[in-house]
Amino acid sequence: MPFLEGMPEFGKIELEYRLYLKSRRKIDVNNVLTVVDKYFQDCIVDAGIIKDDNYKYIQRTEFLYGGHMPLEDDSFVMVTIKGV
Fold first, then answer.
1. Rg of the Cα trace of the chain?
2. Which candidate, 3, 15, 6, places its Cα nearest to that of 83?
3. Among 54, 59, 56, CA closest to 15
4. Average pLDDT, the chain
């Protein structure tokens, strides 16, 4: 994943996902973000940011609704990686 290139390796991390929606349609935020989380964790392991995606390396994961973003082209997820 090109956007992960150059990121340092972390021993342990916390992940925060924020879902921003283009529409006002009500959705289950966890349904969307659990799928994003699964694939994103695989990507950060493949990129060498963490050694594995188990509880030893990922200390906390948080799913949040970011809000309604009508001027964006599409809905999106913002991920914050915090070293601990």
1. 14
2. 15
3. 59
4. 94
Question: Are the CB atoms for 83 and 12 separated by under 8 Å?
Answer: yes
Q: How far apart are CA 44 and CA 15, in angstroms?
A: 11
pTM of the shown model: 0.90
Task: Give DSSP secondary structure letters for the chain.
Answer: -GGGTTPPP-SSEEEEEEEEESS-----HHHHHHHHHHHHHHHHHHTTSSS-SSTTTEEEEEEEEEEE-TTSSS-EEEEEEEE-
12 close to 70: Cβ distance less than 8 angstroms: no
3 pLDDT higher than 90: no
How do the domains of the chain map onto residue ranges?
26-84
Identity of residue 27: I
